[in-house]
């Protein structure tokens, strides 16, 4: 058993199951804030916070993807009686998914048990459809959500939030909600309390044994609901603003729907056949998320028929999962990496054909400068030589000299001269990260490890006065800022998204607009190369990559 009834937790919250509910019969009190320490926020703060939680139920449970609002009415008091001010109805199609669903056709509010003493009326009456993160495991349900005020002037600072799932039995309750008939979160006399109505009939005010045990999940959920209500109400009062804003570039609902679609198609095969030593769930679901984002981004840029208007190159494609998903979706493109990965062997032949084991040496390092090319049109290379020391187990160290002509012709080298309709992906592409804006194609780069244009590990500082949405002056914040800085100097119009992926390094720098598109390498590209200290060691470091072991990503 958990703590005894009436026990107080270290945060001051009190287990109240032995006390009569302020909501009246058949409600059961579960938890409340400290009765001796009144909350300092207002009813308006509480309601603003709870309306946000109603619209974003994933705040309370990571098993929830989102809520679609099907029905919303807003009432205000006129002459002491509630009058309808606004009304909104929306239909969301579930026909293209075989997700489990329960009573999703019931999209009007259900009746609730209201306390007579508080004279409550529904200020907001909302029906939301809750979509779980895994709709093939948990069911989609509809739920009535009420934001209630009192018609009694004595209780003008009272507010109640009532959740009523459109379910008739605890047996069909999905994992992500408490298995009770109704939930109430009451703000009354500067105190928040949480109350339940269980599915089973309450007789003689007897509390079911399950609700007396704080170790039970349904009881722990009540505690978390109180924590969320208290924390977010305080946040509204203090003017808290989110440090990270998602869904700036691509619509959240479109991304999430695409993610569910791709997850259903590819996750099982990829996890079960994972050939790398790394955690399959992290890499698989991360790349599914990135693929979903890219597809919706390309629809936004090129239109619904984007597959006929563009192709991709995934530079530093690593395990090839992203390439596999995109190619399987009928999108033309290739993945290029310095070393073949074990996971490439699990993919179908059409994906294998799109995975290239090559090193990237941008042609700007091998071709003649544009001014020289104008004078000598027949020149194809710049005549440079690149010595590289190599060690061998049985012979003395030697020096190999690569010429720019040799590298331009080598099948092991990709010089990043792609068709004009190419979109470049840099998914945690390490040494290539800062190079990608210099290549002259629309791109999305997700920075990870910090390297300069020579391929050497380095640390960039965040420019003064720049707020790029990443806290502090960490190495990662500096790298993201540096990629943005290089891109801007090259004339790219930058957008940035904090991706919904299971990684702390989730900033995506995106651009598909540049007035010099098709004219690279431009004079500004050479200026950036010079300002960055050149790239004299890039070729030596890059050729070495072919000899080493692959990284985990």
Automatic annotation (TrEMBL):
GO molecular function, one term: tRNA(Ser) (uridine(44)-2'-O-)-methyltransferase activity
Pfam families named in the record: AdoMet_MTase
One GO CC annotation: cytoplasm
EC number: 2.1.1.211
GO BP: any one term: tRNA methylation
Domain of life from the UniProt record: Eukaryota
Homology family: Belongs to the TRM44 family.
Biological function: Adenosyl-L-methionine (AdoMet)-dependent tRNA (uracil-O(2)-)-methyltransferase.
Full protein name: tRNA (uracil-O(2)-)-methyltransferase
Organism: Maudiozyma saulgeensis
Source lineage: Eukaryota, Fungi, Dikarya, Ascomycota, Saccharomycotina
């Amino acid at each position: 058993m958990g703590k005894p009834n009436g026990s107080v937790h270290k945060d001051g919250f009190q287990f109240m199951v032995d006390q009569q509910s302020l909501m009246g019969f058949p409600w059961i009190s579960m938890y409340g804030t400290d009765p001796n320490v009144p909350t300092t926020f207002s009813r308006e703060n509480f309601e603003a916070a709870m309306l946000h939680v109603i619209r974003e139920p994933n705040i309370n449970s990571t098993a929830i993807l989102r809520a679609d609002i099907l029905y919303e009415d807003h009432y205000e008091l006129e002459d002491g009686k509630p009058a309808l001010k606004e009304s909104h109805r929306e239909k969301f199609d579930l026909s293209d998914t075989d997700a489990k669903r329960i009573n999703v056709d019931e999209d009007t509010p259900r009746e609730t048990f209201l306390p007579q003493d508080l004279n409550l009326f529904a200020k907001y009456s909302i029906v939301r459809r809750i979509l779980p993160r895994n709709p093939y495991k948990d069911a989609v349900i509809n739920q009535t959500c009420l934001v209630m005020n009192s018609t009694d002037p004595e209780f003008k600072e009272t507010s109640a939030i009532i959740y009523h799932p459109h379910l008739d039995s605890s047996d069909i309750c999905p994992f992500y909600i408490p298995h009770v008939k109704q939930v109430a979160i009451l703000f009354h006399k500067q105190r928040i309390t949480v109350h339940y109505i269980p599915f089973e009939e309450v007789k003689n005010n007897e509390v079911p044994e399950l609700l007396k045990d704080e170790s039970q999940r349904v009881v722990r959920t009540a505690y978390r609901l109180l924590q969320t209500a208290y924390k977010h109400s305080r946040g509204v009062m203090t003017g808290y603003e989110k440090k990270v804003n998602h869904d700036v570039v691509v619509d959240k609902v479109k991304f999430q729907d695409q993610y569910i679609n791709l997850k259903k198609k590819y996750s099982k095969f990829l996890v079960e056949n994972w050939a790398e030593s790394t955690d399959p769930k992290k890499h698989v679901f991360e790349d599914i998320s990135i693929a979903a984002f890219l597809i919706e981004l390309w629809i936004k840029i090129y239109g619904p028929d984007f597959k006929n208007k563009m192709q991709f190159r995934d530079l530093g494609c690593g395990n090839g999962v992203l390439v596999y998903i995109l190619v399987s979706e009928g999108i033309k493109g290739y993945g290029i990496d310095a070393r073949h990965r074990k996971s490439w062997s699990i993919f179908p032949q059409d994906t294998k054909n799109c995975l290239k084991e090559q090193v990237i040496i941008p042609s700007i390092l091998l071709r003649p400068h544009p001014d020289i090319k104008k004078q000598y049109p027949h020149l194809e290379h710049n005549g440079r030589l690149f010595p590289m020391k190599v060690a061998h187990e049985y012979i003395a160290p030697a020096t190999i000299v690569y010429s720019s002509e040799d590298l331009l012709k080598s099948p092991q080298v990709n010089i990043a001269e792609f068709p004009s309709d190419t979109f470049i992906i840099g998914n945690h592409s390490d040494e290539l990260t800062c190079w990608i804006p210099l290549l002259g194609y629309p791109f999305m780069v997700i920075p990870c490890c910090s390297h300069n244009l020579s391929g050497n590990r380095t640390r960039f500082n965040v420019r003064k006065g720049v707020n790029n949405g990443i806290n502090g002056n960490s190495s990662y914040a500096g790298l993201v800022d540096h990629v943005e800085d290089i891109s801007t100097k090259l004339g790219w119009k930058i957008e940035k998204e904090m991706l919904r992926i299971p990684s702390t390094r989730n900033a995506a720098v995106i651009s598909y607009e540049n007035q010099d598109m098709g004219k690279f390498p431009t004079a500004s590209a050479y200026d950036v190369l010079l300002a960055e200290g050149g790239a004299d060691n890039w070729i030596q470091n890059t050729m070495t990559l072919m000899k080493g072991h692959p990284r985990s990503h």
